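User: I'm curious whether this sequence folds into something compact or stays loose and floppy. Could you predict its structure so I can see for myself?
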Amino acid sequence: MQWFKRKVYSKFWEDYIAHFKYSQDQDLRAIRFVVFDTETTGLSTKNDRILSIGCVGIQNLRIKISDQLESYVTQDLFDSSTVKIHGLLKEGSLNKITEAEALQNFLGYIENAVLVAHHAAFDVGMINAGLKRMGLPKLKNKVLDTGVLFQKTKLDLSKPHFSLDELANRFNIPLHDRHTASGDAFITSLLFLKLVSELNKNNTIQLKDLLRNIKRIGLL
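Assistant: Here's the prediction. I'll summarize afterward.
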């Protein structure tokens, strides 16, 4: 009989999953959130590639400026038509690393933090696609979407989706460095804190409340 053998992964992946040994704290002030954004060659998680990753940490519901990560990825795929959006040339003076190096750095940085992004499914999908190319499983972190959190506030139910620009303007957040990964991560972090403050007005919320399915927002 051939015994089942556990697949062996790289040490950095084993170090990453070791952070999930214990259950997540529910007190929002005790949780480390990492707000992140990816700039990409396009909108296909299958065919496009990550150009840059920007992250900013939040602890005690405050942005921690010293807790940041920014990576620029060498461009194996290049679409000149998207440069006007993200401003990243194939060459240039920026220090770029491989996709594998960028993802390894990302995992080492986020650890077991709760991830936050605007339209998070896309950014998480891009990260997971990169991990798959490395022969690794998907991210294990809990994920929050600021678009969904805005729906939970019930401030505007006129449509199901609002862009980052629309919500930043609503909450008077300056659009500084828009369409750079780090700039968008910082804008999203400000938006996240404003949404949490709004949701906390009438109830003391916990992580499970933010994660709860949108169809059950009446419980907030």
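Summary: Helices lie at 11-18, 83-86, 99-110, 120-133, 146-153, 164-170, 181-199, 207-211. DSSP finds eight helices and five strands in the chain.
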